[in-house]
Design a protein that fits this description.
The complex is a heterodimer of chains A (194) and B (248). By secondary structure, chain A is mainly alpha-helical. Chain A has eleven helices and no strands. Chain A folds into two domains: 110 residues, Receptor-associated Protein (Up-down Bundle), CATH 1.20.81; 68 residues. In chain A, α2 packs antiparallel against α3. The mean pLDDT of chain A is 84. Chain B folds into two domains: 136 residues, no CATH class; 107 residues, Receptor-associated Protein. Classes of the chains: A mainly alpha (194), B mainly alpha (248).
């Protein structure tokens, strides 16, 4: 089953293609065949399957209902329902698709704006971690270098400080892991706008 | 010449640098074709609305699709013009549909392949081509703008991330370690370098991946990892050595 992101990726392009064809007088089945030829990811696969079922005698509205119930993405499901309503009630499909694609475009712009806002502070956060961690953990590691006399001064706790110096490498490794976790946000919140 | 020897000497400071430098050069060679290909593809896609508009006007003036495309291929000197000329030439020995399909394949752009697919359906269905191409020109202009928004908005952030993590971070670290403990005063930094070099290289690699993901081009960004890791490590050790020898 296709994921929400897979369905959403090519939806706007598919909507616009169907709109262009219907607007110039081409029928819905021909438009579906065009989408089914490929180039629109999961939507192409679904439409190809629907066309194959139509050739086996299935009804168009039934195919749209089946695809709509299978869809994960709300906008894709709405698109399929609009197509189904047109078949059953002969609605103004071009107008409905124009409204839907405008809404989809607006949603994509909003998602993109949110993504940009979310990532706006990332370079500085990563730099802060990147600089602070070697400084903080490095102080312990640097003491034997900067003040070697301090280690043999007899001050209590110096032995644990010397042990902490050995943890410099693992501490930086942990910093990298934390930085990777912050960086993962760039992947997880991607709106999938191509 | 001395600079080259100094640089060679610098590479020998860390085993990690010795390993990554031979990987860097072929990786840069691998990254450049991807960069050029993307630029070419975007040029073709950016020209698409204009081409469709020209087709629509020519069809409106009474020309056929093949004549309209011939006219465009003659007038355009860019990559689109070249590809269309090639397609028109080929159509003399094959069919026009095959030539259009070849143009779509040679463009290596999903967007152009979709447009050609749409045009083929419109031709098959005897649809008014002028109207179809005009609507497509408007739609693809809007879609192009949507694609460009991400590129424009994120490229600044992505560049800033690379500059901060691959240049500023190693610069600050190299400067700090060099100034706080001079070798001339008896400080030994070998063990710190062994930890700092892989740390800086790994953080540079991480930043390259994140900045690539921000622009939606992670796979292409992977080629740049060795380059930025080397720059980061060289900057750190170079600055450190320069300050150490300068203050000695």
């Amino acid at each position: 089953m296709a994921t929400n992101a897979e369905e959403s990726a090519d939806l706007l392009y598919a909507m616009r293609a169907v709109m262009v064809l219907l607007g110039s007088g081409i029928g819905l089945e021909a438009a579906m065949q065009m989408i089914g030829r490929g180039g629109y990811g999961v939507i192409s696969k679904d439409f190809k399957e629907a066309i194959a079922n139509l050739q086996r005698g299935s009804k168009l509205e039934k195919e749209f209902s089946r695809l709509s119930s299978k869809a994960n993405n709300k906008a894709y499901s709405r698109f399929l329902n609009t197509l189904r309503t047109n078949v059953t009630s002969d609605t103004d499909l071009v107008r409905a698709l124009t409204q839907q694609s405008d809404r989809e475009e607006e949603e994509r712009n909003d998602k993109l704006a949110t993504y940009i806002e979310k990532l706006s502070g990332m370079p500085t956060i990563l730099l802060t971690f990147g600089i602070l961690s070697p400084i903080i953990f490095g102080i312990a590691a640097m003491i034997p270098v900067i003040a070697p006399g301090l280690m043999s001064s007899g001050i209590p706790g110096m032995s644990s400080l010397a042990a902490a110096a050995a943890c410099f490498g693992p501490a930086l490794f942990m910093t990298l892991l934390v930085m990777a976790m912050f960086g993962y946000k760039a992947h997880s919140s991607d709106p999938g706008v191509i | 010449m001395q600079i080259l020897w100094d640089l060679y000497d610098l590479f020998g400071q860390s085993i990690y640098l010795v390993f990554i430098i031979p990987i860097t050069l072929p990786c840069i060679a691998g990254a450049i074709p991807g960069f050029l290909e993307r630029r070419r593809r975007r040029q073709l896609e950016e020209a698409l609305p204009e081409v469709l508009e020209s087709i629509s006007s020519s069809i409106g003036a009474g020309l056929g699709l093949q004549q309209a495309l011939t006219e465009i291929s003659r007038n355009r000197q860019d990559e689109t013009g070249k590809l269309l000329t090639q397609a028109i030439d080929r159509s003399r020995s094959t069919s026009f549909d095959a030539a259009l399909a070849e143009y779509a394949i040679n463009s290596r752009s999903v967007l152009i392949q979709r447009v050609v697919n749409l045009l083929s359906v419109a031709i098959e269905q005897d649809a008014p081509l002028g109207e179809v191409t005009n609507s497509m020109s408007v739609e693809y202009d809007r879609l192009n703008k949507l694609i460009n928004v991400r590129e424009q908005e994120m490229s600044g952030q992505s560049f800033l991330l690379l500059m901060l993590m691959c240049l500023l971070l190693p610069g600050v670290m190299g400067f700090m370690f060099a100034v706080f403990g001079l070798a001339a005063a008896g400080a030994y930094w070998g063990h710190i370098h062994n930890v700092m070099m892989p740390y800086l290289m790994a953080s540079a690699a991480l930043s390259v991946v994140i900045s690539g993901r921000m622009l939606g081009r992670t796979k292409q960004a992977l080629w740049w990892i060795p380059f930025w890791s080397t720059i980061s490590a060289l900057l750190y050790i170079g600055l450190f050595e320069a300050i150490q020898s300068g203050m000695a």
